[in-house]
C-alpha cells in the first residue's frame, strides 16, 4: 500500500499523531495505543517536560540507567552513572573499576579545553589585501561587536581566545575561513560559539563593504557560506590513565608477563589495523557514550569528534595506547570531547541532574575525566576478556537475560538458567533447547501458540 504525505503533522495532538500513524502505517492496529501509552509518565508535568525536549513526540523511549561503582579516580571513589542498553557494558566497567581500585586507580589530566568554530566564506579578490584588513581592523571589530554576546562568558573566564583568517583556496577555489578559538568553561558552548560566529559574519561583510581599499567586485564577491562550530575539538582533550607494576597483572593461570604481552599486542593491532581499531574504539565509546548520555550531553558530537581524532594521522587508529617502561605497565586514552555541566538538558532532565549529583556536581573538566575513565575502563575490560577467556563467556552470560526476557521466562525459570549456566558457556541455541525441555515442548513456536 502506498502511503499518503501528511500536512500539519506537528500541529496534531499527541493522540492525533498516534491515530495517524496507526491508520497510515500499522493497518489500524489499536494495540499501538497501549504500547505507546505504557511509557507515558503519570506525572503530567514530567511528561510535558519530556515531550518538549524534541518534536512530534508520541511516547518516551526508555534506556537502562545503571551505576558502575568502585571507580577510584584521582584518589576519590566514585559510582559512575551509565545510560546504555547493551548488556555487559556496566558490568565490564564495574569489573575494571574494581581491578584498578587496588592498583592505584585512574588518573585524569586535562590537556586543553579550546573549542573551535568557523565562518566559511567565499571571496574572489586579492588575499593580501584581505589579510591586511583582517589583521589591522577586522579582527578587533569581530571582538568588539561580539562584546554583548561574550559578556557573561568573559565573566566566567571564558570567551574568544583567538581569531585567524585561513586561506583554503588550495583545496577549493575562493574558499576562506575565519577560525575562532573559544573557551566555553562549563558549558558545551554550541549556542555561544554559533552566536559569535553569526555576528562575525555580519561584521566581516560590513567591514569589507565599508573599506575603500577593496574594489566593488571584491566586495560583491564576498559571500558567507555558513557559520558553525566544529564538533572536532582536537584541542579540548582529557587524558585518563592507569598504571601499575607488571607483576600485579597476573590473571588466573596467565602470568603477568604473558598478560602484558597479549594485552599490548591487542592494543598494537588496534593501532595499525583500522578493522580492529573500529571495534576497539566502539568498545571505548560504549563507556564514553553511557556517561555522556546519562549526564545529558550530546553523544553524537562526542562520537563524531572521537572518530575524527582517531584518524588524525591519516589512518583510523586506536584511541587507547599502552607501554611498559621500567617494569611499569601504563595504559591510557587521550579523548577529545566537548562536554557541558551547565545549559542544555543539565538543569532540566531530572535523571541528568541526579547523575551529575552522584558524580559530585562536576565541572566540565571533571566530567570529561569521568567519560574518558569509563571509556578506558571499558576498553581494558574488553581487551582483558578478548585476550584471555574470549568475549562471549561474559557477554553471553549477560545476554542470557535478554534471551530469557524474549522468551517471557518466569522468575523461577530465570533463576534455573542462571544456575544452569554457572559452569557452562551460554549459546543462543542451548538456551532455547533447554527452555523448551523445561517447558516440555519441542519448539518456541509451540510456547507462543499456548
Ligand atoms: C562490544 O560492544 C564491544 C567490543 O566488541 C569491544 C572490543 O572488541 O574491543 C567487545
TrEMBL record:
The keyword Secreted does not apply. Keywords: Oxidoreductase. One of its GO terms (molecular function) is hydroxymethylglutaryl-CoA reductase (NADPH) activity. InterPro entries: HMG_CoA_Rdtase, HMG_CoA_Rdtase_bac-typ, HMG_CoA_Rdtase_cat_sf, HMG_CoA_Rdtase_NAD(P)-bd_sf, HMG_CoA_Rdtase_sub-bd_dom_sf. GO terms for biological process: coenzyme A metabolic process. PROSITE patterns: HMG_COA_REDUCTASE_4 (PS50065). Signal peptide: none annotated. Pfam families: HMG-CoA_red (PF00368). The keyword Oxidoreductase applies. Belongs to the HMG-CoA reductase family. This is 3-hydroxy-3-methylglutaryl-coenzyme A reductase. It comes from Chishuiella changwenlii.
Amino acid at each position: 500500500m502506498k502511503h499518503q504525505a501528511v500536512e500539519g503533522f506537528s500541529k496534531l495532538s499527541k493522540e492525533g499523531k498516534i491515530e495517524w500513524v496507526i491508520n497510515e502505517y500499522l493497518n489500524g492496529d489499536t494495540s499501538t495505543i497501549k504500547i505507546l501509552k505504557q511509557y507515558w509518565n503519570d506525572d503530567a508535568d514530567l511528561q510535558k517536560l519530556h515531550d518538549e525536549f524534541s518534536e512530534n513526540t508520541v511516547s518516551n523511549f526508555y534506556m537502562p540507567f545503571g551505576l558502575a561503582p568502585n571507580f577510584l579516580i584521582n584518589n576519590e571513589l566514585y559510582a559512575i552513572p551509565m545510560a546504555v542498553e547493551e548488556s555487559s557494558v556496566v558490568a565490564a566497567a564495574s569489573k575494571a573499576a574494581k581491578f584498578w581500585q587496588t592498583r592505584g586507580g585512574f588518573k585524569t589530566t586535562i590537556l586543553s579545553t579550546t573549542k573551535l568554530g568557523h565562518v566559511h566564506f567565499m571571496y574572489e579578490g586579492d588575499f593580501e589585501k584581505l589579510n591586511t584588513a583582517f589583521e589591522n581592523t577586522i579582527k578587533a571589530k569581530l571582538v568588539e561587536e561580539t562584546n554583548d554576546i561574550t559578556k557573561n562568558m568573559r565573566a566566567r573566564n571564558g570567551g574568544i581566545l583567538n581569531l585567524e583568517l585561513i586561506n583554503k583556496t588550495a583545496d577549493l577555489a575562493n574558499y576562506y575561513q575565519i577560525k575562532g578559538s573559544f573557551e566555553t568553561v562549563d558549558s558545551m558552548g554550541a549556542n555561544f560559539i554559533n552566536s559569535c560566529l553569526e555576528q562575525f559574519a555580519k561584521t566581516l561583510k560590513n567591514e569589507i563593504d565599508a573599506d575603500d581599499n577593496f574594489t566593488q567586485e571584491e566586495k560583491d564577491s564576498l559571500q558567507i557560506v555558513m557559520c558553525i562550530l566544529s564538533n572536532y575539538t582536537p584541542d579540548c582533550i582529557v587524558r585518563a590513565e592507569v598504571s601499575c607494576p607488571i607483576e600485579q597483572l597476573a590473571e588466573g593461570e596467565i602470568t603477568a608477563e604473558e598478560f602484558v604481552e597479549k594485552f599490548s599486542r591487542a592494543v598494537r593491532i588496534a593501532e595499525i589495523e583500522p578493522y580492529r581499531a573500529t571495534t576497539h574504539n566502539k568498545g571505548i565509546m560504549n563507556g564514553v557514550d553511557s556517561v555522556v548520555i546519562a549526564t545529558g550531553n550530546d553523544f553524537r558530537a562526542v562520537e563524531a569528534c572521537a572518530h575524527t581524532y582517531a584518524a588524525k594521522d591519516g589512518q583510523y587508529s586506536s584511541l587507547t595506547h599502552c607501554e611498559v617502561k621500567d617494569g611499569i605497565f601504563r595504559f591510557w586514552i587521550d579523548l577529545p570531547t566537548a562536554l557541558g555541566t551547565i545549559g542544555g538538558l543539565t538543569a532540566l532532565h531530572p535523571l541528568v541532574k541526579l547523575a551529575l549529583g552522584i558524580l559530585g556536581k562536576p565541572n566540565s573538566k571533571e566530567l570529561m575525566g569521568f567519560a574518558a575513565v569509563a571509556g578506558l575502563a571499558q576498553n581494558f575490560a574488553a581487551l582483558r576478556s578478548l585476550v584471555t577467556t574470549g568475549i562471549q563467556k561474559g557477554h553471553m552470560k549477560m545476554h542470557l537475560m535478554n534471551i530469557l526476557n524474549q522468551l517471557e521466562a518466569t522468575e523461577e525459570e530465570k533463576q534455573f538458567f542462571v544456575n544452569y549456566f554457572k559452569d557452562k558457556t551460554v549459546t543462543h541455541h542451548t538456551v532455547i533447547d533447554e527452555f523448551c525441555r523445561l517447558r516440555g515442548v519441542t519448539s518456541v513456536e509451540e510456547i507462543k501458540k499456548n
